[in-house]
Amino acid sequence: MSTKNLQIVMPFHQPLTASETELEAICAQVYAPLLDAIAQSGVKVAVHFTGHLLDFLSRHPDDLLARIKVMAKLGQIEILGGLFYGGVPALLPELDVRGQLEMMTEYWESMVGNAPQGFFLPELAWSAELPRLFEDTGFGYGFISSQQITLPETANPSLVTLLRGGKQLGAFVLDAPLSEALLHDDAATWMSRLAARGPLTSVWIRAESLGLWPGTRERAYEQGFLNQWLSALAAGTHDVTTVLPNAALALAKPATPAALKPGLAPELGAHQGLDWQEFIVFSPLLDTVYRRMLRVSDKLREAIDTMEQDGLEETWSDALATAQRLVFAAQAPDLYWQGPHPGFDNPVLRDAVVDRLSEAEGMIDGLVQGESDWIAVEEDDRDGDLVDEVFVANRHLSAWLLPQAGAKLKSWDDRDSGKNLLDLTGEGTSEALLPLHGTLDDLTDAPAPLTTAVIRSEVDEDGDGTYWLHVRMGLSSVAAPNLVGDIEKRVSIPIDRAETTLRYTTTTPVGALLAITLPLRLPPDTRITVNDGPVDLVAASYPDVQKLTLASDAGPHLHIGFSPALTVWLAPVPQAPGSLVVVPVVRLNDQAEATLTLCVTGSEV
Questions:
Q1: What is the pLDDT of residue 345?
Q2: Residues 260 and 292 in one domain
Q3: Average per-residue pLDDT for the chain
Q4: Do 141 and 254 share a structural domain?
Q5: Are residues 557 and 445 in the same domain?
Q6: Cα–Cα distance measured from residue 175 to residue 372, given in angstroms and rounded to the nearest whole number
Q7: Distance (Å, rounded) from C-alpha 130 to C-alpha 56?
């Protein structure tokens, strides 16, 4: 019987939402015992760590990193590189791809003394541009699923070459069925499957899925699976020898040219046929966060260019290095996970991403603008609809406005806390027409005003440094075809406060309700008061509301004022704990006026 070579790739990955306590637990209860078991068995394994976990390990210098270093020195594990936070290369600016690759390489070079020779992409996030994007990185090979490539029917290679723009990139082919079988086979059955494979086989399994951590695997293992599996490998059952990728490279050559199949990795979801960019557009939730990431990344590069051109390294470099790390962390693949619980459907994960982007953007603006009061306005098309949005910022807040969509607020950041206070539903604030007897339940099917005309957008209209966006919204509605009229809406942001005012004026009698939807994200301990009286976080309607306050010990505190007093509907979102929709309702009639003022403070007032 001929010897069979097996290489095992084991990613160690924790999401951005993993707390210090959770990371401590999984390191102690999963990673340390797993590394001990591998060391004792003598089995060789390639490992890959992503940035959120590495950040934690670097801050908590126990013996885990030391153990990894020793095992690497002894040649029992090979450390794989890649993007430090594991981003999806096809979705990132090229400079960010190269920056993350360099960050990971430098990290392991300083830790173990050698730069990684191979790379691994979380979510197996290959794209056609990868050979070009990875040009001059020093990597000799990566790993790709057998379900991601197209080969001649007679070919069954262990190593392939992918080409793009005259560049080529080698990749070991991960046996998808055999990798999947690790999630349900017993050790003996799995080894029998392996015996039927060729001379070199590559498989991968997440470190958390080896039966040591409850709730992280698709099917529970019998007690002792890990030791049974490692013992079978160590004993050379079926003449199997484990090898590391840097040694397997010689065994696998020559590489077979292959083509990348269109679409995402089959293991990762049901969106077959979509490439990564199409997948972004598929989800408004994802698209909003993604466009936000691109904008902050651009601002970071502009600030770095300014620093280098003006010789500001001594005062700017540390802050920009921190901002860069925050942006890179926000590019982690967690948000793009498409499995049974998609990442983009997780509001806590969206918060974790956007909080990092908000903090990074605040740091960058703080350097560029200085500490005195300032206000900046930028017009740019960031959502890809060929219409410019408006980005307004001062040192207290940052707002993303859509002038052609009724001057919607798409995001609204409090700079002091680094939090976006609007829930990232993909739509932001909005207005909808309802009949006079309308209720909260009518909002689901209510169409928004159909037309918007931008009247004016300018800073310092009255000489006080305030930004104004003035739009006119037509009120023709499918739900109320007999209602004709318009509303003028003015959005204002002052230069010196975390405050935004929405002022509505009806110029034609229409006889309807205007429901203004404000989707908010709340800390877990948020207390709600209406006109200074506490209320529960339940769906309810409150008449004659002048002030609504959302306060938390963690801060910030959001105060919404209404003039005149309005009826306000509150609607918690059951599927998204911490989300609350606030809906002030304006009764439209001849020359009706209503003003909403959103203000953030660090403490209750």
A1: 72
A2: no
A3: 86
A4: yes
A5: yes
A6: 59
A7: 29
Residues 350 and 482 in one domain: no
Is residue 1's pLDDT more than 60?
no
Q: Give CA–CA dist 100/229, Å, rounded.
A: 35
Q: Are 87 and 333 in contact (CB under 8 A)?
A: yes
User: Can you tell me the distance from the alpha carbon of 463 to that of 486, in angstroms, rounded to the nearest whole number?
Assistant: 28
DSSP letters, 37-84, are HHHHHT--EEEEE-HHHHHHHHHS-SHHHHHHHHHHHTTSEEE-B--T
**Residue 415: CA count within 13 A, CB half-sphere:** 19
User: Do residues 365 and 390 share a domain?
Assistant: no
For residue 347, pLDDT over 50 is answered with yes
Asked, as a colleague might, if the bond just before 572 is cis with ω within 30 of 0, I would say no
Domain holding 488, by residue range, is: 371-601
Does this model's pTM top 0.85?
Answer: yes
- Indicate the Cα dihedral angle 84, 89, 91, 92, nearest 10°: 60
Point out which residues pair with 452 in neighbouring strands. Answer: 473
Q: 533: domain CATH number?
A: 2.70.98.10
Angle in degrees, CA 142, 145, 151, rounded to 5? 100
| Co-location of 224 and 297 in the same domain | no
Helical ranges in 370-495 per DSSP H: none
- Mean pLDDT throughout 250-270? 77
Sign of CA dihedral 69, 70, 73, 78: negative
Residues with Cβ within 8 Å of 112's Cβ and at least 6 positions away in sequence, in order, are 68, 69, 72, 73, 79
Q: Quick: pLDDT tens for 102-125.
A: 999 999 999 999 999 999 998 888
Pair 213, 287 in one domain: no
According to the model, what pLDDT value does residue 382 have?
74
In angstroms, the Cα distances linking 310 to 95, 304, 316, 323, 365 are 21, 10, 11, 19, 16
Backbone φ and ψ for 308, nearest 5 degrees, come out as: -70, -40
The mean pLDDT value for 543-569 works out to: 91
